[in-house]
Design a protein that fits this description.
The protein is of the alpha/beta class and 445 residues long. The chain has ten helices and 15 strands. It folds into two domains: 339 residues, 3-Layer(aba) Sandwich (Alkaline Phosphatase, subunit A), CATH 3.40.720.10; 86 residues, 2-Layer Sandwich (Arylsulfatase, C-terminal domain), CATH 3.30.1120. It is globular. Keywords: Calcium, Hydrolase, Metal-binding, Signal.
């Protein structure tokens, strides 16, 4: 384990489809039918209110792993098994950068950035991995009426080690759906124990499966809350995070380990597993604030002050650059990197401002909205999934401080805001045109 404070260990826990309003520390918890005491206590170590992600699983995970907007990498949306998906070999990932800096790396959880040889986690910078290559709704396949394994791929839990082929462990069905987060925690605990006795710093990426649909709890948590599967799953998720935190303490690495907790996108919109974004409108697959904003918690003993929060704008791409800065290494210089180093904000959230003023928000390859400071300009209006009114001739402008639900268009009274927003758009589009990686998208397979 690393004892060098300039090279801290890093543990990144990513929840799946966890809305801003689900956790107690964000106004949910018991109000959502499931107290979340472990994550709430972690939030006292450092909490952001304005952490922003992409529209669904694949785009966010690609942004996290590369520090680049998905419009650059081609990881635009979740696609079915058997179709081209994942990061091109040209993209450089966070674990690849950290491994070059001497870090041990592991991935236990949901990958969703490549499901063919050459694109599994163990091919993209992780020393070892265990989990699912795509997404968890596939656990429903084998129990679906009419499922035919001759024309549709069976979903598997898999594992792999760098330099060796990744292999199938077992079919991923509804029984394993209930067990998988327990399995993932056991894998992470074992790996952390092994690394605690080694000399190198480590990076653990632990993408949980909860709360992605079908949101089914482990049998130990069925009826734990008395409020149904979704609340029981929230209680399990909180417990699993607590298990990892306790193990970090037990193996004696807490003081030099950064723990990051976040979600990949806004809440579930499919009943009966529908989630909430709290005060914000919308779910994932929209450009509403409930899609962009998700929980983000950081614990960095001796560096991030306790009981301080911030409403400064941070984007998921920033985690790539910030983690590399924490590890004492630099981001790649041969391609545009959208992530910004936010270490100073995390260390002094009461006084520091974010180094980011805004960002463009794409769904697939369409620019839907642009966020700048506390303003949001919608170019396409889709307040709910599959309810788009198409491109707006006159865009809608909202101030998210005064109007968190995005209900009152005030562009006519604030046309001055178009100047910085359109400047941001123009500069980003110019960087796309100059991006050498975009030519690589034709070689995705």
């Amino acid at each position: 384990m690393s004892k060098d404070p300039s090279r801290p260990n890093i543990v990144l826990i990513l929840a799946d489809n966890l809305g801003w309003g689900e956790l107690g520390c964000y106004g949910g918890g018991a109000l959502r039918g499931a107290p979340t005491p472990r994550i709430d206590h972690l939030a006292t170590e450092g909490l952001l209110h304005n952490f922003n992600v992409e529209s669904d699983c694949v785009p966010t995970r690609s942004a996290l792993m590369t520090g680049r907007h998905p419009i650059r990498t081609g990881c635009l949306q979740s696609v079915p098994a058997g179709f081209p998906q994942g990061l091109t070999p040209w993209e450089k990932t966070l674990p690849e950068c950290l491994r070059e800096a001497g870090y041990a790396t592991a991935h236990h959880g949901k990958w969703h950035l490549g499901d063919i040889p050459g694109r599994y986690p163990s091919d993209r910078g992780f020393d070892e991995w265990f989990g699912i290559p795509r997404t968890t709704d596939e656990s429903q396949f084998t129990s679906a009426l009419g499922f035919d394994a001759e024309v549709a791929e069976l979903p598997y839990i898999m594992q792999g080690i760098t330099g060796q082929p990744s292999t199938d462990v077992c079919v991923y069905d509804l029984e394993k759906r209930r067990l998988i987060d327990e399995m993932l925690v056991e894998k992470s605990k074992d790996w952390l124990s092994r690394k605690a006795s080694a000399g190198a710093p480590f990076f653990l990426y632990h993408p949980l499966v909860h709360l992605h649909f079908p949101t089914l709890p482990h049998l130990d948590f069925v009826k734990a809350t008395g409020n149904g599967d979704f609340s029981d799953s929230m209680a399990e998720m909180d417990f699993r995070v607590g298990q990892i935190l306790d193990h970090i303490d037990d193996i004696g690495v807490r003081d030099n380990t950064v723990v990051l907790f976040a979600s990949d996108n806004g809440p579930e919109f499919r009943p009966p597993y529908r989630g909430t974004a709290g005060p914000w409108s919308g779910t994932y697959h929209t450009a509403m604030e409930g899609s962009l904003r998700v929980p983000f918690i950081i614990r960095w003993p001796g560096n991030v002050p306790q009981n301080v929060t911030s409403n400064e704008v941070v984007h998921v791409t920033d985690i790539f650059t910030t983690v590399l800065a924490m590890a004492g290494t630099t981001k790649p210089d041969d391609r545009p990197i959208d992530g910004i180093n936010q270490v100073s904000l995390f260390q002094s959230p009461a006084v520091e401002k974010s180094k980011r003023e805004g960002f463009p928000f794409y769904i697939k390859d369409e620019l839907r909205a642009i966020k700048w400071r506390h303003w949001k300009l919608h170019l396409v209006w889709e307040p709910k999934v599959n309810q788009s009114s198409g491109k707006l001739e006159s865009p809608y402008l909202f101030n998210t401080l005064r109007d968190p639900k995005e209900e009152s268009d005030i562009l006519a009274y604030n046309t001055w805001v178009l100047q910085p927003i359109m400047k941001l758009r123009t500069e980003f589009q110019k960087s796309l045109a100059d991006d050498p990686a975009r030519a690589q998208l034709g070689t995705r397979m």
